[in-house]
Write a structure and sequence with these properties.
The complex is a heterodimer of chains A (208) and B (293). With 208 residues, chain A is an alpha/beta fold. Chain A has six helices and ten strands; from the N terminus they run H-H-E-H-E-H-H-E-E-E-E-E-H-E-E-E. In chain A, 27% of the residues lie in helices and 23% in strands. Chain A is globular and about 45 Å long. Chain A starts with a helix and ends in a 9-residue tail after the last strand. In chain A, 48% of the residues are buried. Chain B is an alpha/beta fold and 293 residues long. Chain B folds into two domains: 221 residues, Rossmann fold, CATH 3.40.50; 50 residues, no CATH class. Chain B is 28% helix and 17% strand. In chain B, strands 1-9-8-5-4-2-3 form a seven-stranded mixed β-sheet. In chain B, strands 7-6-10 form a three-stranded antiparallel β-sheet. A two-stranded antiparallel sheet of chain B has the order 11-12. In chain B, helix 1 crosses helix 2. Chain B is globular. The termini of chain B are far apart. The mean pLDDT of chain B is 94. The chains are: A alpha/beta (208), B alpha/beta (293). At the A-B interface, helix 2 of A face helix 1, strand 1 and helix 4 of B.
């Protein structure tokens, strides 16, 4: 398929009801961090964007939300696809982005250049959608914070090694900070900025 | 036959829903913080729950079961009209039973029955800013929240004590959420404040005229502000509900005549009806035989 056809294909079959169901997964996921959800509809997103990440873009992005794409994604048809289906402007400035999409295995140096909002308006921050190798298997992480009764354990594979350190820095900014949605194929897992992450394996040096 | 074709599902257009949904996600991520949103004109006046209606419209789906209460009652004007609105524009199932509902939109009460993980409580909020009556300027209250500067609120509660000997605030009693933001729980009686603490249900707040959305995620600390020597207390009632005999619930006073006659009944009508169905009776409940005659 050439790049143009890829960009024009896909999308929600039933936009009103499918975006509502994906939103409810995100709302419940943000409210109960550590619970994994699986997106139902196939949105025909171009590689290397995952199914859940594509559905999130269709559910939340529009002309009011500049979108930043990681280098791997901006080389593909993803930018054209997002623009065609959501009318969201694609930006190269991380600070401008309301949503940022990162493909699996991309290097994450820092959240620092993304918007963390202001102290008066901490909601004006970027939401990052980061693809990992797998959710529900692999390395255990222990989460705690609002929305979690005591502690929740999640398993995931392919989280960038620096992530716990970046997350600790992000937590220190509260109430400012970015929010993260981890995706793997059709699965998603929300990490609002309030979540504390601890590595479960005792032999791993814990995040400070 | 339905009139669904005349409207988009749940009345709002999709772009408005996306805008509100983004605000809700940020509100959940920052518990107790008021997220500004572009509140729309709704086919009902401000003050009738337009904030709550917009939040409900943005989250509701065809599988949801909606309950709407006004001061605890399912059968007052506001509750009936909002319920009818969603039946018409979203064709969703509605109920008056707290336990059957997946979304409960409320004005000024939290149901007596404990809410569960599968439920969302949507509050209609008139004035979302707890500091507004102390500081009218939005620029200043924003700064106070930014700096976590809540001394003024404690001064207000202290002045209550100085004047009345106790904290006389009985509704819209300020709370601190997750140890950070001071939040107005909307004009619910302070009786309901403890129910917000570590609730299993997600709580969303919508203020239409003031254009703010805020949230309390499940299992989140919600602490009513108080002093060591004047701890927070909820209202206590001397008598049980006159119809169902319930104790430890919030009661409404009903004036019966012009000679001082009055009765106290459950404000939560579903709770009261459910108890009566299960054979509980208060002292003023008409006996079944008599009612049948």
């Amino acid at each position: 398929m050439n790049i143009k056809t890829e960009a024009l294909s896909g999308g929600f079959g039933e936009p009103v009801f499918e975006s509502q169901s994906v939103f409810r997964m995100l709302m419940d996921g943000m409210a109960r961090p550590g619970t994994m959800r699986t997106v139902g509809p196939d949105v025909g997103q171009p590689e290397p964007l995952g199914g859940a990440a594509g559905a999130i873009a269709l559910t939340l992005c529009d002309h009011e939300t500049p979108v930043w794409l990681s280098p791997g994604l901006s080389k593909s048809a993803v930018g054209e696809w997002v623009r065609f289906h959501t009318s969201a402007p694609i930006t190269r400035e991380k600070a401008e982005a309301r949503f940022a999409f990162v493909e699996a295995g991309a290097t994450l140096a820092s959240f620092g250049l993304f918007s963390s909002g202001t102290q008066e308006y901490p909601d004006r921050s970027t939401t990052l959608i980061i693809e990992v190798a797998a959710l529900g298997e692999g390395q255990p992480l222990t989460l705690s914070g609002p929305g979690i009764q005591n502690a929740a354990t999640v398993m995931l594979k392919g989280l960038p090694e620096v992530f716990p350190r970046l997350w600790a820095d992000n937590r220190a900014l509260f109430p400012r900070g970015v929010d993260v949605i981890l995706t793997a194929g059709r699965n998603l897992l929300c990490l609002p900025r309030t979540v504390k992450i601890a590595m479960s394996r005792p032999d791993t040096p814990s995040a400070r | 036959m339905t009139d669904l074709a005349t409207y988009n599902f749940a009345y709002l257009d999709e772009q408005t829903k996306r805008m509100i949904r983004r605000a809700i996600l940020k509100a959940i991520a920052i518990p107790g913080y008021q997220v500004p949103f572009a509140s729309r004109e709704m086919p009902m006046p401000y003050g009738w729950g337009t904030g709550g209606v917009q939040v409900t419209a943005a989250i509701i789906g065809p599988e949801d079961v909606l309950k709407v209460i006004d001061q605890g009652a399912d059968d007052t004007t506001n509750a009936v009209s909002i319920r009818a609105f969603f039946q018409k524009v979203a064709n969703v199932a509605v109920t008056t039973h707290t336990k059957d509902a997946t979304i409960i939109q409320t004005r000024h009460r939290i149901p007596e029955q404990k809410l569960g993980a599968g439920q969302v409580l949507v509050y209609q909020v008139p004035i979302p800013e707890p500091l507004r009556f102390l500081e009218p300027r939005e620029t200043e209250t924003r700064k106070m929240h930014a700096l976590e500067e809540y001394g003024l609120m404690h001064v207000k509660l202290y002045e209550d004590i100085a004047r009345h000997g106790r904290i006389s605030t009985t509704y819209a009693y300020p709370v601190k959420v997750a140890g950070r933001y001071v939040m107005d729980p909307s004009p619910t009686p302070k009786f309901d404040n403890p129910k917000m603490h570590m609730s299993e249900a997600l709580q969303l707040f919508g203020a239409g005229r003031e254009k703010r959305i805020y949230a309390v995620p499940p299992y989140t600390e919600v602490v009513s502000l108080d002093f060591e020597d004047h701890p927070f207390e909820i209202q206590k009632f001397e008598q049980p509900c006159a119809l169902c005999g319930a104790q430890g619930v919030y009661l409404d006073e009903v004036v019966l005549d012009d000679k001082g006659g009055r009765m106290f009944v459950c404000s939560d009508t579903d709770h009261c009806e459910d108890r009566r169905e299960h054979g509980h009776a208060g002292e003023m409940l008409a006996p079944n035989k008599e009612a049948a005659e």
